[in-house]
Amino acid sequence: MDTDKIKNLIENSLEGSIADVNGGEGKYTANIIFDGFKDLNTVSRHKIVYSALDAYIKSGELHAISLKTHTSEEKKS
């Protein structure tokens, strides 16, 4: 699995999101801006992202991903 594939999975699942994904060898970091995160706590935000990646996590293709989740308004401040 590569960073472009993870980026595309996230952005296609979360319409209007922008994802910046880095890493390799099964371990990645993702910074995601998505206005659908508004009024959600961190756990709820991460669950949304993990649902997009679930099949790859279960298969072991994606071993670990660290998430930073923001709305566009939060990112501005």
Overall description:
This protein has 77 residues and is α+β, with helices and mostly antiparallel strands. The chain has one domain: GMP Synthetase, Chain A, domain 3 (2-Layer Sandwich). The protein has three helices and three strands. The protein has helices at residues 3-13, 42-59, 72-76, and strands spanning 18-24, 27-33, 64-70. The chain has a three-stranded mixed sheet. The longest helix has 18 residues, at 42-59. It starts with a helix and ends with a helix. The model has no long low-confidence stretch (mean pLDDT 94).
Structural descriptors:
77 residues; 3-stranded mixed sheet
Fold topology:
Layout lengths: L2 H11 L4 E7 L2 E7 L8 H18 L4 E7 L1 H5 L1
Parallel strand pairs: 2-3
Antiparallel strand pairs: 1-2
Entry summary:
With 77 residues, the protein is an alpha+beta fold. The chain has a single domain (3-76), classed as GMP Synthetase, Chain A, domain 3 (2-Layer Sandwich), CATH 3.30.300.90.
What is the makeup of the main sheet?
3 strands, mixed
Low-confidence stretches: none
Provide the residue-averaged pLDDT: 94
* N-to-C span: 33 Å
CATH fold topology: GMP Synthetase, Chain A, domain 3
What string gives the helices and strands in order?
HEEHEH
- The portion of residues assigned to helices is 40-55%
What best-fitting shape do the alpha-carbon axes yield? globular
User: Beta-strand level of the residues, as a percent range?
Assistant: 25-35%
CATH superfamily: BolA-like
Beta strands, count? 3
Structural class given helices, strands, pairing?
alpha+beta
